[in-house]
Amino acid sequence: MDAVQAARSGHPGTPMAMAPAAYCLWHRVLRFDPDDPIWPNRDRFVLSVTLDDIRCFRQLDGRSLAGHLRLANLCWIHDDNRITIEGATSLAFTEDVGARFVAYGWNVTRVSDANDRAMLDRSFAIFTAATDRPTLIIMELPVVYIFTHDSIGVGEDGPTHQPVEHLASLRAIPGLILFEQQPAAYRDEVLPPAVKARAANGRAIQRQESRS
Question: Which domain range does residue 85 map to?
Answer without folding.
Answer: 2-139
